[in-house]
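anyone seen this seq b4? input:
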Amino acid sequence: MNPSVYLYNEVNNVYKIYLGECSVLDGLSLIEKSQEIVITNFGATLYKDYGWATEAELPLLKNVGEVIAFLETEGELGIIDFEASLSNLCKFSSHDDGECTFTFESKNDCIATLKLAAPLQYSDMLINQLINNKGLYLTCSSNGAVNKYSSFTEYCEKNT
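predicted toks r here
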């Protein structure tokens, strides 16, 4: 996984990561499979014949591994909204199955997850850049060059 854009922020002992162009499956793959999960909001257009499926139509999925297996088995679901609580770890959300947000109460857990998401050869440098540029959107090229954007709009304007 190589997210197209990263954002790190911390406010009042809450630590947030945003990963652009990152699916629900990609985002959950950063979490230990045995981690307990409760899906609190789900909306999809292609799950079975529901038209608009919610969390009520999903089978009981107790941990991240079960959710990953479900997503891989079902294939394209047309996920529009996905929100989950991962007990004692974080809250996780995705919009349009193309961007993931993690909200942690532990900075260590946040940084550990970010380290898994970042390109291996540049992870320490990128994490340092993110921590020192809270609230900015950052990209990291294949050669390690980091670009900073003050807003998601600016990022989109300069990268589309």
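Residues 90 and 104 are 5 Å apart (CA to CA). Strands lie at 6-11, 14-20, 38-44, 53-54, 79-86, 90-95, 99-104, 137-140, 146-149. kinda curious what u guys think
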